[in-house]
């Protein structure tokens, strides 16, 4: 994790930034999957937390070695989006950078699939399961998220992203095909 590339969304009058970030991040996921890359991490330097302000921001930062980032950027994953994204050059990570774990967080939100699953597991009808979940207030999730489509089920879902506390030393490890890890850190700087 000694180099990085910043990808910044350009303002677009037709599409909100959250929609563009979802499209960009979805393409990155497919590229990481196709490369079977586990050595590229991501962060969202301009993310905001809070129930009313949660957003990943308009900048996606890719972290890795110069070689792994170069291999990713030679792939055609940005085709059709290049006019919507400013791509900075690959740069070395500053010496004084801190480090953070950037991970996926999942929440039980009482959505339709959870209601259906509950009805099946408890052998009750759908209306009874819906009534059980109707009076529960869903969690108020303060984390930024990206709206994506699942490659396997084609269902839309919210990928909630948590940036852990900054720490002085890096922790090595593997990243999933979303560029996230439960234990490995990415450099953190502005």
Automatic annotation (TrEMBL):
Source organism superkingdom: Bacteria
InterPro entries per the UniProt record, alphabetical: CRISPR-assoc_prot_Csy4, CRISPR-Cas6/Csy4_sf
Entries under Pfam families matching the protein: Cas_Csy4
Record NCBIfam families: cas_Csy4 (TIGR02563)
Protein name (Swiss-Prot/TrEMBL): Type I-F CRISPR-associated endoribonuclease Cas6/Csy4
Organism: Salinicola lusitanus
Taxon lineage: Bacteria, Pseudomonadati, Pseudomonadota, Gammaproteobacteria, Oceanospirillales
Name of the encoding gene: cas6f
